[in-house]
Design goal:
It is a single chain. With 266 residues, the protein is an alpha/beta fold. It has a single domain, classed as TIM Barrel (Alpha-Beta Barrel), CATH 3.20.20.450. The chain has 11 helices and 9 strands. Strands 1-2-3-4-5-6-7-8 form an 8-stranded mixed β-barrel. The radius of gyration is 18 Å and the shape is globular.
Length: 266
């Protein structure tokens, strides 16, 4: 989800006094879940929660309804809805949740509703992964670093989404080393036939490995892309090859999908 695309760089964090204000959403949302797989053992690493309209419309349709004044409430609502739905569906793996750094005015305060939802639903907080897009313009990088460090101190995993697509790049990585680096789809698409993209991803994997980050390739659609990335030592994958987002469903990844991805005709 890209904040600037919908609200511009002037969107500001919700003021503390507004936590209980009358800025409720006047529309309903649901959550879709897309599997994230670990190619090392053909397991499901986790699921990313993706916001949808009540009738199944995409994230862009949802965000078009959110005003700047509702941003804090929207961010909080998405977190709670993701946890509640995942718990109801019996999720046993990790749950990856997108968040808006510009909607978090104070990490310790703004996380309280998330923690309360997890406790109420009985969802272990150590399974939570919080990710933010590098392509989102964050006015205060020090603020984002504080958020990430606070989340890590609470046992959450952290991730930079769309790495290689946006504003922060290596500068953000120098300030904070997340658990996961999610490669942008622009680096993935057609990588099997593009030596330049292959070289860039190889370099990112080497950097990530040396600083303790795990690379996750998102937007993987073809077996050829998967095999090329696997040869570059990428272990985690997300994309249509392994499953599309499904509303309120934790879809498995059939063995046939793995056989196709790995080129196993047996």
């Amino acid at each position: 989800m890209y904040l600037e695309k919908f609200f511009g760089a002037t969107a500001s964090p919700h003021p503390c006094a507004g936590c209980g204000g009358d800025d409720r959403l006047d529309f309903d949302i649901r959550m879709a879940f897309q599997p994230i797989v670990d190619a090392r053992d053909r397991s499901i690493f986790g699921y990313e929660a993706l916001v949808r309209t009540a009738d199944g419309g995409g994230a862009a349709e949802v965000l078009a309804q959110v005003t700047p004044e509702q941003l804090y409430r929207f961010d909080q609502t998405c977190r709670v809805k993701a946890i509640e739905t995942a718990a109801r569906l019996g999720l046993q793996q990790r749950l990856s949740i997108n968040f808006f750094p510009n909607a978090v005015y104070e990490p310790a305060t703004c996380i309280r509703l998330t923690l309360a939802a997890a406790q109420t639903c009985g969802f272990p907080t150590e399974r939570l992964v919080f990710e933010t897009a590098e392509s989102e313009r964050v006015r205060d990088h020090a603020h984002l670093t504080r958020i990430f460090r606070d989340y890590r101190s609470r046992g959450f995993m952290t991730a930079i989404d769309d790495f290689g697509a946006g504003y922060a790049g290596l500068r953000l990585l120098a300030d904070f080393q997340p658990d996961l680096l999610k490669l942008d789809i622009g680096l993935i698409r057609g990588i099997d036939a593009d030596p330049v993209r292959e070289a860039i991803v190889r370099g990112v994997v080497q950097i990530a490995t040396s600083i303790g980050c795990t690379v996750l390739a998102e937007g993987v659609e073809t077996a050829a892309e998967f095999r090329c990335l696997r040869a570059l030592d990428v272990a985690l994958f997300q994309g249509f090859l392994f499953g599309r987002p499904e509303i309120e469903v934790l879809a498995p990844v059939p063995e046939a999908v793995w056989r196709h991805a790995e080129g196993d005709a047996a």
